[in-house]
Structure formats: structure tokens, C-alpha cells
Fold this protein.
Amino acid sequence: MQPVKLIFATNNQHKVDEIRSVLKGNLDIVTLREAGIDQEIPEPFNTLEENARTKSETIYKMTGTDCFSEDTGLETEALNGEPGVKSARYAGDGRSFDANIDKLLDKLRGQTNRRARFRTVISLIINGQETLFEGICEGRIIEERRGNNGFGYDPVFVPDGADESFAEMDMSGKNKFSHRKKATEKLVAFLNSL
Ligand code: ITT
């Protein structure tokens, strides 16, 4: 069987590495860079779903090739879901992981409710038809950074059932809990059912 070819509409290499680590067999992921597309896709909306859809629709219209994108947010209970859909630019347009974590830790200082979750929404377009998949990882925000692996908010997020932060785990460790892995597995199951 020919591998299914899909463009992954992202400019985030960490996401590509994580999703490739979950995919096995008949799925050939081509990144935007590998497809020769050098474009920042706007994410203007207030929901992960709409932003994911915009990214995949933009690339589908541009290439005519089946594709998917994902939008992920970190949602904290004490801050009414912040940073949520604004996770990448929480501390400003510089998109600095460090500044974003500093802002989050500042806003949660003194808070006893540290509950948080990562939520990933994947938007898949096959033959012009969109399907959404969601993956959630529940956990908590710790008071100080721990670990150097991963990206984004990984140093301050400890998933339920673990003692280590995501940034203290290797990729297979993160995959035991990961929002992105859960959403990707749903995508794979859907493709296998076609
Ligand atoms: P795209 O090109 O795919 O849009 P992006 O980095 O802009 O890449 P998002 O809009 O989904 O991606 O931004 C989500 C931000 O949330 C991202 O920049 C990280 O700061 C953070 N994030 C996403 N997934 C994460 C994960 O698994 N662990 C830690 N932080 C994560």
C-alpha cells in the first residue's frame, strides 16, 4: 500500500518531531518547509478550532493537497483558561517561551489552584472535507521550571500521574501523557477507517 501523503501545516519543528514519533507505517508527513512553503499563517481567532481550521484551509487552498494542522493551548483553571488560545503570544509578539513562562508563573504566584491542561485540536482536510480531533492532558503548573527537554510551557507542566515535568521527560515519556499524542492517535484511527 502507498503511504498516505499529508502536508502538516505548521512552522513548529517540535510539533513535527512529536507527531512523527507517534506515527507509524502508512503516513508520510511533509512539513511546510519540506513542501517549499515559507509562510506564517495567521491565527486571528478566539478558539483553537477556528485557528486550526484556518491553518489547514489556507494550505489546502494553496496546494490542493490533503493536509492537517493543529492548534494547542495551555488552559489554567485559576486564570479562567488563560493563556489558552493565546499561548504562543502570551507575553507578546516575540513568542518567547521564556517570557511566556515568566508571565504565567507571575500570574499564578500565591495561587493554590494550579490545575491546568493542554488541549490540542487537529484539523484534517481530505478531499476538501474537514474533520477535527481533540486531545487533552490534565495536570498542574509547578512553581519553578524543571528540566530542559521539549518546548513551550513543558518546564512548568506536570501531567497527572507523573512526578516529572514534561521537560524532564524524553519524548517517549511525554508521549505516555501527551495531548498531542492523543489527538494524533484519533487522526490515525480515522485515516485507517477510510
Ligand atoms: P504552528 O506553526 O503550528 O501554528 P505554533 O508554535 O504557533 O506553531 P500554536 O499556535 O499551537 O503553535 O502555539 C501554541 C503555543 O503553546 C506554543 O508556541 C507553545 O508555547 C505552547 N505549546 C504547544 N504545545 C505545547 C506542548 O506540547 N508543550 C508545551 N508547550 C506547548
